[in-house]
Amino acid sequence: MGKREQAKQRTRKVIIDAAKELFIWNGFLNTSTKEIADKAGIAHGTLFFHFPKKESLILEIFDREGMYITDQLHQVLHDTYGVEELLHRYLLFLEEEEDFFAIIAREFPYYPEKLKQRLLFREIGIRSYFLTALNIGKAEGRYRNLDVTAALTFLFGTINYLLSHREQLAGKQSIIALKKELIINTFLRIINYKED
Amino acid sequence: MGKREQAKQRTRKVIIDAAKELFIWNGFLNTSTKEIADKAGIAHGTLFFHFPKKESLILEIFDREGMYITDQLHQVLHDTYGVEELLHRYLLFLEEEEDFFAIIAREFPYYPEKLKQRLLFREIGIRSYFLTALNIGKAEGRYRNLDVTAALTFLFGTINYLLSHREQLAGKQSIIALKKELIINTFLRIINYKED
Amino acid sequence: MGKREQAKQRTRKVIIDAAKELFIWNGFLNTSTKEIADKAGIAHGTLFFHFPKKESLILEIFDREGMYITDQLHQVLHDTYGVEELLHRYLLFLEEEEDFFAIIAREFPYYPEKLKQRLLFREIGIRSYFLTALNIGKAEGRYRNLDVTAALTFLFGTINYLLSHREQLAGKQSIIALKKELIINTFLRIINYKED
Amino acid sequence: MGKREQAKQRTRKVIIDAAKELFIWNGFLNTSTKEIADKAGIAHGTLFFHFPKKESLILEIFDREGMYITDQLHQVLHDTYGVEELLHRYLLFLEEEEDFFAIIAREFPYYPEKLKQRLLFREIGIRSYFLTALNIGKAEGRYRNLDVTAALTFLFGTINYLLSHREQLAGKQSIIALKKELIINTFLRIINYKED
DNA sequence: TATGAATGAGCATTCATTCAT
DNA sequence: GATGAATGAATGCTCATTCAT
After folding, report:
1. Which single residue has its CA nearest the C1' atom of nucleotide E21?
2. What are the pLDDT tens digits along chain C (196 aa)?
3. Whole-number Å distance between alpha carbons of D21 and D15
4. Where are the domains of chain B?
5. b/e for D3-41, b at 16 or more Cβ within 10 A?
């Protein structure tokens, strides 16, 4: 990579960092390209040299961030086979990055198609951990004979709903912190045989 | 009602109809007052004679539609005490008005506070039917000893999630039609003792 | 005057009263015809039956109000020949009606030409009291050999300036109350021989 | 200054010149940003690139003009200690820029607070020349034992009044040219011992 | 590579006035 | 005489994108 290329990459990173930060505060939809350029300390036009459409910037951000987050989640989840433990760790992770995930949950329907696909794809990656754990547990007779995909739709759907409505439901607090127990308990009751 | 009043109501209706149609296509947030006026065939300013703020137009639409829907739902749900039947009817209704509900699910977080409150209030009304049915069933020993509120959070959260992601999950089709069975079966398993 | 005509006059009065009140609060320029009609309890269109232009309404108001005020001032000033007493009474009167006069002073340059003429004409009527008193005093050797018209330009110009800048100079207080002494003393020094 | 910067300054100047011209004709309040852009031969949006708010454009105009004027006035007044000479020069200057000052006098009460402050501040700067000259003259026994602040309120108040009413009092002519002698003579009589 | 000035369509809202009823 | 619904031009401002330098 020549010096030229290095400088280019450096600028890209500067832009992405600035965008990410603003994005967490205000969401992608309410962050203007000018704001991003200003925060990045580059010219407004420069941004469009690196990312010809606002859309391509957001795409790249999610690919980077998504990759990082997916990596982290893989580390967090990969040696965990119990569903309860998995859920615990997943929710802890969401709680830590709640600002980020709440924005995504809310803005998702307005993202460009390509980005929606990628986000959905990534969610599938995360679901697969649960899928595996559930199937194993089912095979071992620890869980009820549920349609695991359906159960996960309920789990992820509910979490998404809570995140996107967090402002109404939890104000400035963490909606995940607030509902963690409820989510875990209810999901465990869904999959478990026994009553408490 | 005099002729004058009739004409006024006609115009109001023309506006509301235009707005509703555009709104179902593009959402409230992406529909401009000018677009509505053009579609309604009236002057831009006329719209503001009938609805002084964009918000008041949307509020009226929701109140009309909401009242109609709530009325219908009450009729549909009011003499139904079995949760399964209740859910069936509710989903059938959502399916019929899916365009409308999908937009709300997607845009909700961006609505003005007043509208959010009203929508939330209406949802509580609907939930109460399920709450009653669940509590009766629980008391009669037909359902598991679940935290019913938690169970309903899962149910409504999941439905909301499906609606707001319908484009991705079902394209132009009805997401409710597609997932109805899954929703019902899973929810019944959540609340029932027995396995299938 | 037939019943019809009576009703017409009654409506005119209702409109004028409403307009006057709003005008003192917000000025003529910031009062909309709709506001006036609402406050008067008549239809918006009715206002234009009685006053085909907004301008004609304001013209009428000033004629009525102006006549009343001029009458009052005449009563207050007519048997007063000392300039000091005259000024005292005039300022007292301004102070009592300061809201009204401050608005006029500020808005004057934006009034329709016809109205400006009339207001100016009225001011001349008031000035004439001072003119007479000053000339008599001069003839009797009580005042300096001043150009009385020039002196009055200073007096009325200054008062007008204070009224139109009252917000900056006196906030919510009465600028006349605040500067009365200064105005009187300075004007007396202008016209008197002796130092204090 | 690079070519780029030059071009920018040129555009700024084009905007300011257009604005100033329109402003002298119609006042700031009755000149729309679109009008200014059209007259300047630039896109409407471009105006907001250079001046993010209408207020900032007007502020800049006043600062430029005000600075120029203050500079000139300082040059004109700074080595002048006689009040008569001072007044002469000041009025001559007002006469030359009368279009500008007349608009300010008229619109002042409607300006944004920030602008009012600045204008008031500038006036104080000008007044101080007179204050100094008057106090010296008083100390040297050349002028009467007047309250100088009060005298200046009369002077500036009157000038302001004449400017804001110029249309009525002088039509298209210069009100200052018309009343210069009157102002000077009267003010001198106010401060002087002797009669003419 | 980078710059940043320029673009112009788009937005919600206001308001004096008109006119059919 | 009175009504009030309808009009539409006008307003200040935003923002993703373009392009000459």
Report:
1. B4
2. 677 778 888 899 999 999 999 988 888 889 999 999 999 999 999 999 999 999 899 888 888 877 887 788 788 777 776 889 889 989 998 999 898 899 999 999 888 888 888 888 888 888 988 998 899 888 988 888 888 999 999 999 999 999 999 999 998 899 999 999 999 999 998 888 755 4
3. 10
4. 1-52, 54-191
5. eeeeeeeebbebbbebbbebbbeebbbebebeebbebbe
> What is the tens place of the pLDDT at every residue in C75-125?
877 777 688 988 998 999 899 989 889 999 999 988 888 888 888 888 888
The answer to whether the CB of B32 falls within 8 A of the CB of B108 is no
D182 to chain C, minimum CA–CA distance in Å? 6
The answer to whether the C-beta of A42 is closer than 7 A to strand E is: yes
pLDDT averaged per 10 residues, chain A (length 196): 78 92 89 94 94 90 80 78 86 90 90 85 88 90 87 95 93 95 91 65
CATH of domain C54-191: 1.10.357.10
**Which amino acid, D90?**
Y
Residue of A nearest to B169 (CA): A120
B110 touches strand E (CB under 7 A): no
Pick the CATH number of A55-191 from 1.20.1740, 3.90.25, 1.10.357, 1.10.4160: 1.10.357
Per-residue pLDDT of chain B (196 residues; tens, 9 = 90+): 677 788 899 999 999 999 999 998 899 889 999 999 999 999 999 999 999 999 999 999 988 888 888 888 788 777 776 889 889 989 998 999 899 899 999 999 888 888 888 888 888 988 988 998 899 888 988 888 888 999 999 999 999 999 999 988 998 899 999 999 999 999 998 888 655 4
Put simply, the answer to whether D157 touches C160 (Cβ < 8 Å) is yes
Instruction: Look at D186 and C153 and tell me if their CB atoms are within 8 Å.
Output: yes
Would you call D192 helix, strand, or coil by DSSP?
strand
Q: Which chains touch A (3 or more CB pairs under 8 A)?
A: B
Residues in A touching B157 (Cβ below 8 Å): 154, 157-162
Region label for D22, one of left (φ > 0), alpha (ψ between -120 and 50) or beta (otherwise): alpha
What CATH fold (topology level) applies to the domain C1-52?
Answer: Arc Repressor Mutant, subunit A (1.10.10)
Question: In residues, how long is chain C?
Answer: 196
Q: Measure in Å the smallest separation between the Cα of D121 and chain C Cα atoms.
A: 12
Low-confidence ranges of chain D (pLDDT < 50): 196
Nearest to D154 among C144, C147, C154 (CB): C154
With contact defined as 3+ CB pairs under 8 Å, the chains touching D are C
Determine C/D contact with 3+ CB pairs under 8 A as the test: yes
Task: Just give the CATH number of D53-191.
Answer: 1.10.357.10
Residue with tokens 């400088």: A7
pTM over 0.90: no
CA within 13 Å, CB half, D152: 19
- The DSSP line for D133-155 is HHHHHHHTTSB-S--HHHHHHHH
C-beta separation of C157 from D162 below 8 A = yes
